[in-house]
Inverse folding.
DNA sequence: CCTCATTTGTTGGAAAAACAACATATTTTT
DNA sequence: AAAAATATGTTGTTTTTCCAACAAATGAGG
């Protein structure tokens, strides 16, 4: 019986794998867990990493900070999602981002070399793991492409609209919520918070958008 | 003996696979090739795709165009590199980008469903293919992350400097060249061409950067 | 309930980008 | 080699963002 196995099995990385399989797989991946409280540094930009990580509880932020101190939130990674997987394939290269816990957070560490190396004989589930990994990469790729679409817009207004309309579509509902505070949203879209605030309220006055805190809604025309 | 096998084997997707293996693998992936002349549309935004493609000769551009007609070049894909692989994992979703040939271009099409499905018994090389795919995804991820880093900069000047310094580092040489015309570079960095031109020449006057056509060099301080 | 800290909204001036229109340079075509 | 088409550079104006300082609202703790 493995600790946290139910949490682990909820991750898309372990899709199609059962508890029995997991008990073989985890030692093979040299897995271990670690807990963090809020705002602890898990990976620091400039270091090299050798693990792919799964957030089991809580959440972490992927943060890029340039020399001048401009902070950019790449994304927030929560339950079941991965981080570090991209860079763990190029172990010698220093990572350009930091990972910081956003909460009380439980993280599963997996030895990245063991993921690719299909272990001995009976490792059906190992193949499943690699397949899962591919899908996760594809999805992350799509996310990055989306973000690039937002950032490619020239004005704060267009960035907001492209992001929010994506979120509206994704939610499938009229009213949708976003996982960011105003400052975080500004960081995510790489714009000035105050200018963004002004722009949001302009959109509200113009009757295009309605919002209260993190709840948004596009007005019917 | 397979047509174009030497070109195919040069692709990172087929790393570690020999010509003998390839002759088994290609039919299993339902592979076929197609030629395009310059500026032909290979994939059109909004359609759904069912193939992962490898550029065997020439090059293609990954282009995003919004409703207002603002064109953004995501990237240029050339010899041996892939496109479509990300979206082929989610066959039902319409793709948000178009792919346009940039030259006389030879493209290898692979049935995306066959890549994941490890075929029958003896398919060692199929596993190799999946491993290669993972590395390619990881690398593409890093590229997207880089691009996000450039776009996250607030000013044209900073975008230019972050991109060019990355290119300088990557080349390892003092003088380096970039694969873009001025208009393409502006599109890639999502800035105004004329403003970028002004900024480039300002950097030259200030003695920070020197350039002629596509050849750039950072001045020693 | 009050105080303090944090987040969010507002405003005006400075800086930068977008835009437009045109000048110059380069490449392609004939 | 000349003409046409394309790419790049320049300049002045308009628009937008950035920045800073402050005001208002919200939230947390005692």
């Amino acid at each position: 019986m493995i600790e946290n196995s139910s949490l682990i099995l909820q991750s898309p990385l372990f899709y199609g794998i059962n508890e029995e399989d997991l008990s073989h797989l985890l030692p093979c991946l040299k897995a271990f867990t670690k807990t963090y409280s809020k705002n602890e540094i898990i990976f620091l930009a400039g270091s090299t990493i050798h693990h792919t990580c799964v957030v089991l509880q809580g959440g972490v932020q992927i943060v890029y900070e340039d020399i001048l101190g401009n902070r950019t939130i790449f994304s927030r990674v929560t339950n079941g999602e991965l981080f570090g997987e991209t860079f763990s394939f190029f172990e010698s290269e220093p990572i350009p981002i930091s990972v910081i816990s956003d909460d009380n957070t439980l993280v599963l560490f997996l030895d990245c070399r063991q993921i690719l190396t299909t272990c001995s004989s009976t490792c059906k589930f190992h193949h499943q793991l690699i397949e899962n990994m591919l899908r996760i990469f594809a999805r992350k790729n799509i996310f990055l492409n989306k973000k690039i679409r937002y950032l490619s817009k020239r004005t704060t207004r267009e960035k907001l609209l492209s992001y929010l309309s994506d979120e509206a579509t994704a939610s499938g509902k009229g009213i949708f919520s976003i996982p960011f505070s105003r400052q975080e949203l500004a960081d995510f879209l790489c714009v000035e918070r105050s200018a963004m605030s002004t722009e949001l309220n302009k959109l509200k006055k113009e009757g295009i958008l309605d919002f209260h805190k993190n709840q948004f809604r596009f007005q019917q025309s």
Notes: Residues 154-155, 181-183, 193-194, 197-198, 200-201 of chain A lie near DNA strand C (CB under 10 Å from a C1'). The first helix of chain A runs from residue 5 to 9.
